[in-house]
Amino acid sequence: MAPMRSRLGRSIISVWSWAVLGLSVVVWLPMVAIVRLITAPFDSGRYAAGYLFRKLVVVHQKTNPLWKFTLTGQVPDDPRRPYVVVANHESFVDILLISHIPMEMKWLSKDTFFKIPVLGWMMRLAGDIPLSRGDRASSAEAIRQCHDRLQKHVSVMIFPEGSRSKTGELGQFKKGAFRMAVDAGVPILPLAVHGTRSALRKNDWRFGDSTAEVRVLKPVSTNGLTVEDVPALRDQVREMIANELSSMKSDVPELR
């Protein structure tokens, strides 16, 4: 477990980490824009720009002594084989942790993130997908864009719980991600995330001590499945993640 630090210590480190993050965002924007411009003629899926964008948070985590992130499991050998990637959702920091996986995936994200200056611009350059909850037209467009990315051999990342768990317990999964995988004929790649809840607590600007792990599980094929199979597929994947979380909570991962 990461050592507990004083309120003052956390405050000092947090000021430093936020400053590093802000500087990194400013530096990264022109880099992502240049990569997008150079690769536009042959990279319609925006794989390269997105991959560079995710590296921003990897650099930030390395400069934050409060966070120790671990990646375990088997990352797919072919990063251009498209998956619908799904994970449990503990915290906003899940996004930063999952970005350590060395494969590009486009994130289905709330449209409010895309309105944040600089960060939102990079998300658009990277080809991430905005969604306005409760808006049918937005949902239909988001689904269309997800299928577009999958057809261009880029994975799509979705939190099937829909929102962060308030209790830390695994919530119910919605069917959307699994219906998408069946319709597109691509496998599901499940991820189990543990330890991010303490990294950035709600209503507190300070970072917290966190030893967090993302574990890549075995892909689940959708070959031969139809719409009628979606509920069973959803429940199968949820059970896989739930079982893995139970194992992770009883283990202390080796840091690297």
Describe, in plain words, how this protein is organized in 3D:
There is one protein chain. The chain has a single domain, classed as Glycerol-3-phosphate (1)-acyltransferase (3-Layer(aba) Sandwich), CATH 3.40.1130. The chain contains seven helices and seven strands; from the N terminus they run ααββαβαβαβαββα. By secondary structure, it is an alpha/beta fold. β3, α4 and β4 form a beta-alpha-beta unit. It has helices at 7-39, 47-62, 93-98, 119-126, 136-151, 176-184, 230-250; strands at residues 67-73, 84-87, 105-110, 129-131, 155-158, 188-194, 210-216.
List keywords for this structure.
256 residues, alpha/beta, Glycerol-3-phosphate (1)-acyltransferase
The first-to-last residue Cα distance is 14 Å
Measured by DSSP, the beta-strand proportion falls in 5-15%
The largest β sheet comes out as: 7 strands, mixed
Order of helices and strands: HHEEHEHEHEHEEH
The largest beta-sheet arranges its strands as 1-7-6-2-5-3-4
The CATH C-level name is Alpha Beta
Number of H/I helices: 7
Q: What does the average pLDDT come to?
A: 91
- If you consult CATH, what is the topology? Glycerol-3-phosphate (1)-acyltransferase
- Can you tell me the number of structural domains? 1
The dominant shape is globular
Helix content: 40-55%
User: What's the Cα radius of gyration?
Assistant: 18 Å
Class by SSE composition: alpha/beta
Low-confidence stretches: 252-256
Strands, count: 7
